[in-house]
Hints:
Layout: E1 24-25, E2 29-34, H1 46-57, E3 61-66, E4 80-86, H2 95-106, E5 111-115, H3 131-139, E6 143-150, E7 157-161, E8 179-184, E9 190-196, E10 208-214, E11 217-220, E12 226-230, E13 233-236, H4 240-247, E14 255-256, E15 260-261, E16 264-272, H5 279-282, H6 285-297, E17 303-305, E18 315-320, H7 321-325, H8 327-342, E19 345-347, H9 350-362, E20 364-369, E21 372-376, E22 381-384, E23 391-392, E24 400-406, E25 409-414, E26 421-426, E27 438-442, E28 445-452, E29 455-461, E30 466-471, E31 476-482, E32 487-493, E33 498-503, E34 511-517
Parallel strand pairs: 2-3, 2-4, 4-5, 5-11, 16-17, 16-18, 16-19
Antiparallel strand pairs: 1-20, 6-8, 7-9, 9-10, 10-11, 12-13, 14-22, 15-16, 20-21, 21-26, 22-25, 23-26, 24-25, 27-30, 28-29, 29-34, 30-33, 31-32, 31-34
Helix pairs in contact: 2-3
Amino acid sequence: xxxxxxxxxxxxxxxxxxxxxxxxxxxxxxxxxxxxxGASTPEQSWAGQMLRPVLVRLGLRARYVSVHQPLPDLRxxxxxxAVVSFLDRNRMPDPLGYTAWVEGLAxxxxxxxxxxxxxxxxxxxxxxxxxxxxxxxxxxxxxxxxGRWVAVTYDQRVLTATNGLIGFExxxxxxxxxxxVTVPSSSGVQSHLVVGAPGPTKGAAPKAHxxxxxxxxxxxxxxxxxxxxxxGRRQWYIDPVGFLERALHxxxxxxxxxxxxxxxRVLVVVAQANTQRSVTAGRGPRFETKVQRLAAEFPTLxxxxxxxxxxxxxxxxxxTAEDLERSARTSRLEKSLREAQTDRVxxxxxxxxxxxxxxxxxxxxxxxxxxxxxxxxxxxTLRFDxxxxxxxxxxxxxxxxxxxxxRGSLYVxxxxxxxxxxxxxxxxxxxxxxxxxxxxxxxxxxxGVQRSAGEVRCRVKGYxxxxxxxxxxxxxxxxxxxxATGRRFAVKAGRDGLLTTAIPLSAVKGLDIVLRRxx
Length: 519
């Protein structure tokens, strides 16, 4: 199988696009292969619990595929980007059929990532898979299985480890887990973890490459992706986001990000009556009364009943019955809530965040050329990672209401009322001067934006004071008006063009505001 058939569905911004014919849809779906026997639903499996938040962070969506069900034909599905397997054991009903299925997808340019056991060594009756089929499987991730297995590892050591990618939540211990010896089959494979006996040792197994990425996808050996230090608790050895962004080639791709709205990190305060039982089972009048009293004490922070574990990437404050019954825990909780009142966050209800997440999952993305993207519909934030030197070209963008940088990523705030937004990027050394008001960040949701050089009209909705910062074309005096209330407030923009205000009005049910240059 030649490498020529593995054409990357996402064309990196660094490439020249003279040969790019028309707009290219960006594939966002990952077929997650799971065992199907250890959990009642894929979301409850290892694959679901551990991969879902990682895929959300990468702006991807999961489609679960069980090896115990007929494998779907995904070869012509243009939205399928890759297959990622995360299996509980090294056997399955039909290893030969599964290998052929993955090969068929790879031939259509889909990446393949194997986390842990390949699952293809044996069938359910324990019959070994022919060596030729096993070799075909390993070729899909750019490796060769040497047939060696190192079970006693007291004299084995980590020889090479990519800094930041290995030892993420927990370092790999001095005594290594047993491992299969695999080695790269091509020069295009990048090894992130290599183990073996230090120095020349007679009869020693070759150096084993246990975490690799390459043009075809990636591989993490069984026992080297994560560990379970206690039942139900898992910690990653690898940085799963960093690994999968390499293996799936999405490092420079735009990512819908529901954890940031209006340039601020989303905050959800969740009341969960009993952490040991379901929310509905533990919820009762006494608990609800205490939560209502707490809500009255912190009126700028909406409180939801729900399950914090369902919310990926956002800032969460969880309230449990134990918190409200023990004075020490109540004090810590109240301190967290007081700090949240003044933090630069966007408080929202859990249900609203779920709607944001659903919209982000449904959104489509199209690449126009190396620096221009189209997205829609209803998306609020698009994130570009590794983007310190990228800025938005606002003059050639539509549906973009603002942008800011945080920790090396560029967060582009979009108008969710615009069905199709166009984001043009620039690699110019400095950010463009504002030709019309641009949103830097806000505590409220901002939508329905209409603007000119000296005015912006928009709809806002949210909780607490209307803290917001705009980049405006001119310094000096501006008005912030709320026509429905008949009120307006004077605010001054500094020489840097930043206009910061806190509108003392309620926007829980929504509010139309106007930001106008004061003449």
